[in-house]
Write a structure and sequence with these properties.
- By secondary structure, the protein is an alpha/beta fold.
- Helix content is 37%, strand content 11%.
- It has 15 helices and 11 strands.
- Strands 3-2-1-4-6-7-8-10-11 form a 9-stranded mixed sheet. Strands 5-9 form a two-stranded antiparallel sheet.
- α14 (348-367) packs antiparallel against α15.
- The chain is globular, with a radius of gyration of 21 Å.
- It starts with 14 loop residues before the first helix and ends with a helix.
- The relative contact order is 0.10.
């Protein structure tokens, strides 16, 4: 058995042993980039379809639209963590076989980027006894216990309509473009009493919780879970991580944060000024910058950038803003979809201009003693070069 990250065969990932994702529409995932989570095509149909899960999806929660068509694949957290497909995933990874649902990470790595698999292997390497987890894995892939890392998207409430987003992930997109048979707002977990009882029962097992959206600071379930973790005395051993558009920042949230072991916020930032406002439709740059300055005084904060066609020639401005504000920056979340926004699908002349520009930005980062940022830009350059326009 291999230790994820040790003699990496390009397949092993720690997440199937420690983690579970719950999407905005109630589908369980191996992680947030599990390709079996996406059922976008169903939401494009004029008539309400039969909501059948992909064959390699883990299953769905009781409050999901997918339950009626998949009655034998409805699980709570514990059931999903040892669902047939997650057990098969563990077996495949132990054998060194690729998992089709993990294609996103394989593509990221092939394109020169850092994948979620690699990031999580590195993060958990010093935090869990992975060899022991692998030893406890039964021949059929079953792993006793409860996931220590949960990523629950408590619905799709969001105040923005970002150009690279869509329905059902954002309710704001839903208000403008959703089929008549579907509501703009989706929240499959709000009334799931079994889910909330399970979360209370296993709160002290948790070590990491990730909130994203929609927009987590608009999700009532997110606040309810924070309260539950504080009430049960579990918060002090839990790292909380957010991906937030940070256009909304409830004043009372910092009092709650004090109970947790650590809190980090990846603030979505895809430009400065007019570029930011054009990509993240509905946001204002001044409000975002003000909230960055407030939040950085209370939590670990970094700019979470999604490099794409419309901001590729403005990456240096985002780097300058991060430096000026004394916050970190993550440039590795390259946009793949919609395909027309992906930087790897730009015209050859646009790619050449981007390569010259980014090479200069990387050199400037090295001159300012920012080798990590320069390395991220190098990954971006590889990604741009990796694709061919279709």
């Amino acid at each position: 058995m291999r230790h994820p990250g040790e003699h990496d065969n390009g397949v092993m990932c720690v997440l199937p042993w420690v983690h579970l994702n719950a999407s905005v529409d109630g589908v369980w995932g191996r992680c947030c980039v599990d390709s079996a989570l996406s059922h976008d095509e169903l939401y494009q149909l004029a008539e309400e379809p039969i909501f059948e899960l992909h064959s390699d999806a883990l299953g769905c929660a009781a409050g999901s639209r997918f339950t009626s068509a998949n009655p034998d694949r409805v699980f709570g957290i514990e059931g999903a963590f040892n669902s047939p497909n997650l057990r098969r995933t563990r077996i495949a990874m132990l054998a060194g076989d690729r998992v089709s649902a993990c294609a996103y990470c394989y593509r990221r790595e092939a394109g020169g980027g850092e994948s979620y698999r690699q990031k999580m292997n590195a993060w958990f390497a010093e935090r869990v006894d992975v060899p022991e987890l692998l030893r406890r894995t039964a021949p059929d892939g079953t792993l006793p216990g409860f996931p220590i890392f949960l990523d629950i998207r408590f619905g799709n409430s969001c105040n923005l309509r970002c150009i690279m987003c869509s329905y059902p992930v954002s309710s704001r997109w839903g208000l403008d473009r959703h089929p008549s048979w579907a509501p703009a707002h989706v929240d499959p977990y709000r009334d799931d009493e079994e889910l909330w009882a399970t979360l209370r029962q296993h709160a002290t097992d948790l070590r990491r919780v990730y909130f994203a959206g929609g927009e987590p600071f608009l999700q009532s379930g997110h606040f309810k879970l924070l309260d539950l973790l504080v009430e049960t005395g579990a918060a002090g051993k839990i790292d909380v991580v957010y991906n937030s558009n940070l256009t909304i920042l409830p004043a009372h949230i910092f009092d709650q944060f004090e109970h947790f072991q650590s809190v980090g916020i990846g603030a979505s930032c895809d430009g400065t000024g007019e570029v930011f406002e054009r990509i993240r439709t509905g946001a204002t740059w001044d409000a975002f910058a003000r909230n960055v300055r407030i939040a950085r005084e209370h939590v670990r904060l970094w700019l979470q950038v999604a490099p794409q066609r419309d901001n590729i020639m403005h990456i240096g401005e985002i780097v300058d803003f991060a430096i000026a504000e004394g916050v970190g920056i993550d440039l590795t979340n390259f946009v793949h979809w919609p395909a027309e926004l992906s930087a790897c699908n730009m015209l050859p002349e646009a790619k050449e201009a981007a390569a010259r520009y980014l090479t200069d930005v990387a050199a400037g980062c090295l001159s300012r003693d920012l080798p990590d940022v320069a390395a991220q830009i190098d990954m971006l350059l590889h990604f741009i070069a990796s694709g061919t326009r279709s």
